Amino acid sequence: MAAPRPTADDLLPSPVPVRFVAEDGTAVEPPAGYPMPADGDLVEAYRRMVLGRRFDGQATALTRQGRLAVYPSSRGQEACQIAGVLALRDDDWLFPTYRDTVALISRGIDPVEALTLLRGGWHCGYDPAATHVAPQCTPLATQTVHAVGMADALRRKGEDGVVMAFVGDGGTSEGDFHEALNYAAVLHAPVVFFVQNNKYAISVPLAKQTAAPALAYKGIGYGMRSEQVDGNDLVAVLSVLTAAVEHARSGLGPFLVEAHTYRMDAHTNADDATRYREAGEVEQWEAADPLARLETHLRDRGLLSAEDVDSAHKAAEEFAARVRDEMNTDPETDPFELFDHVFAEPTPQLREQRALLASELTAPED
Is 276 an active-site residue? Predict the structure, then answer.
């Protein structure tokens, strides 16, 4: 006999985003059902956020130096990036977007390997099978369907792994996203859809993307448990995502989480964000900085000392220096790889282009 269908009340997110810590770092009373994460996990999250923030700044600088082709900054979204990784086990799968490099670093992927795609390489740079991290996805929301396929495969194999698919607010406007939600709910797949709502799809504000009261409500139409959370409150994001992962792992089906956060920097280094948003808006969100909020909260609770803060920043500087040094080494490349793996049998046009490149590379310099 089939299980009874859930009611809307069973699926509804909280009327306001779940929050544990206010902007000034003081604790607030969270909704029932979401436990406080362990102190050790919060301190570890702080260390990773400090490192992630410094890495993000270093990667942005590398684009100005011509060492990266492009870099989509996630400054201001560190609570989402780090909590998403901490909520998963090592054998769970992560399906990231192009903006989730900090999550990859936190997952333990070598930073140079993580930056290979953004450097202009033709592959993602790391081994997805070994890391359980899919390649970073540039086409919007296509990774959500792939994530459901992986989750269904784990379920069919009798494994208790969970898949988390990161997606931005702009991705929720894509057909792939809705197909993935429907597919996941019907199959009862163990997947968590984690929407980082940073308020802009490049230059398109959220109000021009949807009339829904929150993106979290999009899960209800597919029969999926949903929640919304203050995405700049690491404590809340970690608690909600941990609960969502456990929900999926225990066989209760997929879960949709929307995190309300903000992209402090431009869409990428090629974008001029001043053309579509006011400086005052950015300043307002900088006052809700997730890193500063968590640091204040942990200091107030006696979980973080001045020495701990200095140690975290020192480790982050050393990490950034390593990234800088390794990225300043020119990679060994074969320009003729451009023509490999296009067709099993090269076409006449490809052969002609390859010959043209060969002649240009061997031509004497003027």
Answer: yes
